[in-house]
Design goal:
Blueprint: E1 21-26, H1 30-46, E2 54-59, H2 65-81, H3 84-89, E3 119-127, H4 133-152, E4 156-163, H5 166-171, H6 185-204
Parallel strand pairs: 1-2, 1-3, 3-4
Helix pairs in contact: 1-6, 2-4
Bound molecules: ligand DLZ.
């Protein structure tokens, strides 16, 4: 039987080519995490996000995700306001004067993207165990991630699976062990990051759909 559940496609295909996105993932339940992170990256790139505008950081468990998202968002703002060229401006990498033969060729200065993040994807996999740990972490992490996005104004995509069994988690990463491989939700999170990143830029400029 078909289902009525699920997301409908946006009216336009969002262009991520100008966006900078961070993926922060936990390392608990790594098999599932790896598939979700890979799925998110595939869709970010498919929507045009450039490889050097995708930052991936890991933390031990899902409980650490909110603080990590908050710090990474704040760090990128500081990075954006410090001018890398100013820091290198005093250095002379050769100029016009001849270089002695013994002097090593200086490395090329690779421009680092130093823009704030347009969106952050927080990825974790919580699988219920025998104790109440699961309930406490699910509840606190989901509230805290919501708080981070409202406090910072940067979209935080909720990529935290809260599964009752291993199989539920595997199926939500497209790794189902039965006939039903399931769907990789990481892909949806990548698309959501591009869509929300584009919306947030537009809305913050006071531009709205007619
Ligand atoms: C402790 C714990 C447990 C029991 N289960 C999970 C889990 O299923 N998924 C996950 O991401 N993290 C788990 N953790 C670790 C906590 O999130 C956290 O890293 C530790 O309690 C240290 O703060």
């Amino acid at each position: 039987m078909s289902t009525i559940k699920g997301i409908s496609q946006p009216a336009v295909q969002h262009d991520g080519s100008e966006l900078r996105v961070a993926i922060i993932h936990a390392r608990w339940n790594k098999t599932v995490i790896d598939a979700l992170v890979a799925g998110a990256i595939v869709k970010l790139k498919e929507r045009g996000v450039k490889e050097n505008n995708i930052v991936v950081e890991s933390v031990p468990g899902s409980f650490e995700l909110p603080l990590a998202c908050s710090k990474v968002i704040a760090g990128a703002h500081i990075q954006a306001h410090s001018n890398v060229n100013d820091l290198l401006g005093g250095l002379n990498f050769g100029g016009n004067s001849p270089r002695p033969a013994s002097t090593p060729v200086p490395p090329a200065v690779v421009p680092m993207p130093n823009e704030p993040f347009d969106a952050v994807i927080a990825i974790g996999v919580l699988i219920k165990g025998a104790t109440m740990h699961f309930e406490y972490i699910c509840d606190s992490v989901s509230h805290a991630l919501m708080k981070v996005q409202l406090d910072t104004g940067v979209p935080v995509i909720f990529g935290v699976l809260t599964a009752l069994t291993d199989d539920q988690a595997l199926e939500r990463a497209g790794l189902g062990r039965g006939e039903n491989k399931g769907h990789n939700h990481g892909e949806d999170w990548g698309l959501a990051a591009v869509e929300m990143g584009c919306h947030a830029r537009r809305w913050s400029q006071g531009r709205f759909n007619q």
